[in-house]
Design a protein that fits this description.
heterodimer, B: mainly alpha, MetI-like fold
């Protein structure tokens, strides 16, 4: 065998790939499930918190800012490990999937709350005052006048942050979630061949390249013109 | 509850182990951040090339590493490359994987920064007799960096947090040490302690960033 053939046989072994591609495909499904759950719950929670913050209840806001800061400062993997290995000590035993979902959704919640809040404060005061003086209530002003303007501002930063956090689903492999990386890693140790890892890498690219390209488009499309 | 998550005796016992981990976390960050910045600068400067044969592969490179979860890259270097006879060791794998990942991010940020400097600036600088290199180094880059400083800092924060992935490939950084201590003591206190250390280390940066970001949107 030439060196090139040996390389192909090691990293692109057709036999190994044929055996393990259903596993990787299953991993893709789990990754997508996890990602969708994280994105929906994380952004919804972040938006809810930002709206609550607009009510201006001082003690609540201090607490909120502190929690958001904690979630922004801790590495997501530390939060996953804390949930997965910590909670069982108080007889709550979350699965790896739930731990990863919870941790990533909390992180996305924190980041998106910050982004939504920055968007809300970026809407000029005059908008508030004008809306209130036409007789709209505080809630009507917030939801009908301020949020539509704020949301547009938040789209570019929110997109890139969401993509970055969604890639964190790979961290689930550390706590035995059978997503792409987990499936690929166990296939590598079962077959003693790195080809499944190449399949896994391809699976990530198939999932995320379109997302990154779409994100690039969204960022330019909604860019905040100076 | 306190005994489970904030056990003082265990915290005291685990302290030296955690401290060693913190040292490695800092060492790793101090390696990856400058390398990533340098790589990002090279990418950002090359992105200004007029030839599409330079620009297109570059964009593909950046998108590739932005789409690829850093942990997957790390596992590939750590578990895949040895099959090709290349053994990089824990630290080497982590440093290279994160350099590739974060270099792409720094590159995108710096490119946006350079784009944000008005062309008149470099035209003016060139007409006073500065060379292209001098214009870039003394006129464009300082303004570019200032314009995207919050993004650069935010990415640096992410790099420090990223180092926690080193634990997956047995690199003895803070999280790895905490998990070792946890499995020795059957108690989650060391992980809580590690979380507190991360928080103490990164909170100032988070606060500062949150201010800068708010201001940027408001005046933007």
């Amino acid at each position: 065998m030439t060196g090139w053939e040996r390389f192909l046989d090691t990293f692109f072994n057709a036999r190994v790939m044929a055996k393990y591609w259903p596993d990787i495909l299953y991993g893709m499904v789990v990754t997508v499930e996890l990602a969708v759950l994280v994105v929906i719950s994380g952004i919804a929670a972040g938006l809810a918190l930002a709206l609550l913050r607009a009510l201006g209840i001082r003690v609540f806001n201090w607490l909120l800012i502190f929690v958001v800061d904690v979630l922004r400062a801790l590495p997501p993997l530390v939060i996953i490990v804390l949930i997965y290995f910590g909670l069982p000590s108080v007889d709550i035993v979350p699965s790896g999937f739930v731990s990863t979902w919870l941790a990533l959704a909390l992180v996305l919640m924190a980041f998106s709350e910050e982004i939504f809040w920055a968007g809300i404060t970026a809407v000029p005061r005059g908008q508030w005052e004008a809306a209130r003086s036409t007789g709209l209530s505080f809630i009507q002003t917030l939801l009908g006048v301020v949020m539509p303007q704020a949301l547009r501002l938040t789209i570019p930063p929110l997109t890139s942050r969401t993509i970055a956090i969604t890639k964190g689903t790979a961290l689930g492999s550390v706590v035995a979630v059978s997503e792409i990386l987990g499936q690929a890693s166990s296939a590598v140790s079962n077959s003693y061949n790195p080809s499944p890892l190449m399949l896994g890498a391809a699976a990530y690219l198939v999932l995320f390249i379109p997302v990154v390209v779409a994100g690039r488009w969204v960022e330019t499309r909604f860019a905040w013109k100076r | 509850m306190l005994d489970t998550f904030f056990n003082i005796a265990i915290m005291r016992a685990a302290w030296p182990i955690l401290l060693a981990g913190l040292g490695n976390t800092l060492l790793l960050s101090a390696t990856v951040v400058p390398l990533g910045l340098l790589g990002g600068l090279v990418l950002a400067l090359l992105a200004r090339s007029r030839s599409r044969w330079v620009r297109w592969p570059l964009m593909a490179w950046v998108d590739f590493f932005r789409a690829f979860p850093p942990l997957v890259l790390l596992i590939f270097l750590y578990a895949g490359l040895p099959f090709a006879g290349i053994e990089l060791g824990g630290f080497g794998c982590v440093a290279i994987a994160f350099f590739l990942n974060t270099g792409a991010y720094y590159g995108e940020i710096l490119r946006a920064g350079i784009d944000s400097v008005p062309t008149g600036q470099s035209e003016a600088a060139r007409s006073t007799g500065l060379t292209r290199g001098q214009t870039m180094a003394f006129v464009v880059l300082p303004q570019a960096v200032r314009n995207v400083l919050p993004d650069l800092m935010s990415n640096t924060l992410e790099v420090v947090k990223l180092t926690a992935l080193g634990s997956v490939v047995a690199m003895p950084e803070l999280l790895f040490q905490a998990r070792q201590a946890q499995s020795l003591t059957y108690n989650p206190t060391p992980i809580v302690a590690a979380a507190i250390i991360y928080f103490a280390l990164l909170w100032p940066l988070v606060r500062l960033l949150s201010r800068l970001e708010n201001r940027a949107l408001r005046t933007g």
